[in-house]
Fold this protein.
Amino acid sequence: MFTEDELLPISALQHLIFCERQCGLIHIEGAWIENRLTLEA
């Protein structure tokens, strides 16, 4: 089977479809900063 580190988050697919660069920045580079809008439910 796969380890936890080898699995791709579902959100990565959404980011990849929307913008390959955004997907790379968020899921490879870790360039994500939470703000008020992303924290609100």
Notes: The CA atoms of residues 15 and 21 lie 9 Å apart. The mean pLDDT is 88. Residues 10-18 form the longest helix (9 residues).
